[in-house]
Amino acid sequence: MTRVFITGGASGLGRALAEAYARDGAKVCIGDVNAMRGSETLAALDAMGATAHYLPCDVTKEADLEAAAAWLQTHWGGVDLVFNNAGVADAGGIDEMPMADWHWMVDINLLGVVRGCKVFAPMMKAQGSGHLVNVASMAGLIHPPMMSAYNATKAAVVALSETLQAELFPHGIKVSVVCPAFFRTNLAESVRTANSDMAAITKKLVNKSKIGADEIAALVKASVAKGDFHVLTHPREKRIWLFKRAVPFQVYAAAMRRQMAKMMKKRPAAPVPSADAHKA
Questions:
Q1: Hey, where are the domains in the chain?
Q2: Fewest 10 Å CB contacts: which of 46, 50, 104, 109?
Q3: pTM of the complete model
């Protein structure tokens, strides 16, 4: 019986993955900072007849992930699939985002994945098997404007995953990186931005998407079962990535500038600070 652990497993893609694996008879342990949603998701998994467990887990705390690994080792004898899924979003221009938001994004989106890999790799090495699935984003491959912190953290997750797929292969450990584009989920709830226009655009792109978390989970599950490294769930954005790889960067950069112009067309210009703005 497959043993699965999912961070951010109480909502959105994490919950959809939990339910997808539970339907196939896997043992599913979800980790999440939201205890209420964790209890709700656990109840849903129990109602499906699944063997399931919820653990409070903050991916900014290595001790929480170590506790999860210890629980899995003690109660289920290890783990087969670890989804480093927990993540948050931010949007806005480089001069608009506070450094505190950068630290927040890096600590969750990047270091949260790093901690998950660091904690579970020794267990998988001891087993001689396992699969780390790191959830990044198409923003980690094609880097749209006005999303510098999000793009940077997701690109780093792709780089981390590429590194680990070679590093851990001799130990029988597989690695995949999931790169979805926008889909209907609760990610918009966590968006931080000082730019109200970007917040509205982000929420609109999420809400108008024709594909939801359950469909993404099914695609991810199928790709992981095949051992795919890149898990690309959106054909249009996959084509953009292939275009980026195939053409000179200047061509791709021009396309990004056109996208930026469209985004900014109806956006009011930011006020220019006066010379006295920082005087006491």
A1: 3-238
A2: 46
A3: 0.86
